[in-house]
Amino acid sequence: MSVPQPIRGQCHCGNIAFELDWPDDSPEIPARACGCSFCVKHGGVWTSNPKARLAVTIGDRALVSPYAFGTRTATFHVCSRCGAVPIVTSEIDGRIYAVVNVNVLENVDPASLRRASMDFEGEDLESRLGRRKRNWIAAVRFGARAADPSCA
Ligand SMILES: [Zn+2]
Predict the structure, then answer these.
(1) Distance, CA 124 to ligand 1 centroid (Å)?
(2) 3-state class of 142 per DSSP?
(3) What is the pLDDT of residues 58-96, one digit of tens each?
(4) CA of 15 to the centre of ligand 1 (A)
(5) Is residue 66 within 8 Å of residue 78, measured between CB atoms?
(6) What is the DSSP letter of 137?
(7) Angle, CA 55 vertex, CA 21 and CA 142 arms, to 5°
(8) Distance from the alpha carbon of residue 119 to the mean position of ligand 1, in angstroms
(9) Strand pairing of 87-92 and 95-101?
């Protein structure tokens, strides 16, 4: 099973889009169903790889609603136009780490997803941030989509 290069994903309306360069030596994409109260309500299933590189492109920044709760160390980037949640970020020691939602992937064969359930309830803050630093995507870029010259 091969992983497409790059992996592409976007929210339903396309306002929040990303490209994920997945490392060659990782033939499987983990898909972690998160047991936190937000992800249970949203059906959040996430993937990351510490060696992957993520480039996020936002169409209209005003239509991205950041949402945080609990320890407030993670920000869910909710598209306020279509309601999808393509990415979560966490700023740790001045660096942005991210996970992406496997439900918004556009070009991945579901058979290449290795599904698992995760429950991080009760984890203390230090272990939580340490786990994100080890497992989350550490190369994250945000950019605005270039205006389409044809619709001037
Ligand atoms: Zn959207």
Answers:
(1) 33
(2) strand
(3) 999 999 999 999 889 999 999 999 999 999 999 999 999
(4) 5
(5) yes
(6) B
(7) 165
(8) 27
(9) antiparallel
